[in-house]
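Hi Y.,

Following your request, here is the sequence exactly as I used it, all 326 residues.
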Amino acid sequence: MSARIPWAALALVAAFCVPALGSRYYTFLANDIAIWALFATSLNLLVGYTGLVSFGHAAYFGIGAYTTGILMKKLGVPFLLAFPAAGLAAALAALVFGFFCVRVTRIYFAMLTLAFAQIVWAICFKWNEVTGGEQGMPEVPYPDFGWLERAGEIVPLLGGWRTAEYFYFTTLVLVAASFWILRRIVDSPFGRMLTAIRENRERAEFIGVNVRRFELAAFVIAGAFAGLAGGLFGIFNRGVFPDFAYWNKSAEVLIMTLLGGMHSFYGPAVGAAALLWLNQQIVAHTQYWPLVLGTILIVLLFALPGGIASALGAAARRFGARWRRA
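Below is the corresponding structure, written out as tokens. Let me know if you'd prefer a different format.
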């Protein structure tokens, strides 16, 4: 039996090599993709594994971004404390909102998540003293990378990078660690129970599973990782603004999840990369980019109903089978 190719590890190594290409554009795009990949994967814990469609996942993304921004800019808290605080604040909000959301199902669940997200957006938009209101919170500082620059005097590969590139490397490490934790969760008995609930909620209840408790746990975990993604995005964007929590961010990340494939762990990450790359390319070539992008997405969703990741996996298996026969 042939060994499986470690695609995730290879992709991580390739991502670390991006700044060596010398292009700030590609480093910027790769950083953006990494953060959105984590955001989309956190949503997939609800959509793909639990069968809960959330229209308000951006609420936790925004809460995480504002938590990190307030702590680092206004209170001078170091990144090592502000980053986990973003996940904790988002998890606490998800616990409160999820307590009510998991009591309803299907479209009612989706609409209730949207309602709570709009409440979060309204608070961010109006609470001028804390969030900056409509103007948001610009100039969120980068973490202090002085220790890395000093370490670069000893280890050559660590030195000579710009601050944005140090943050990019930090993002890759944190996103990779988050992916590892999420992978362990979905492969655990807890993750398999979520899949059982997705497949047949009534049967799970019949055998004695507390479905609401498992759904609430998934809701909180998904919110926590969305908050971590938001914390990274606020620094990457060099500012936090109310539209981070607006409904269109929830729609965008849901499209990424569906486009990449919600029944594949890495599908949402592939969808995030595809959507962001398409958006960058189309915007650069035409002013009618919303029409062109929408048309391409419709074609892809119809042509690849299982998502891009599933199509790539099937193609790789066919290629492998032909190679072995040859």
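The first strand starts at residue 137 and ends at 138.

Thanks again,
Q.
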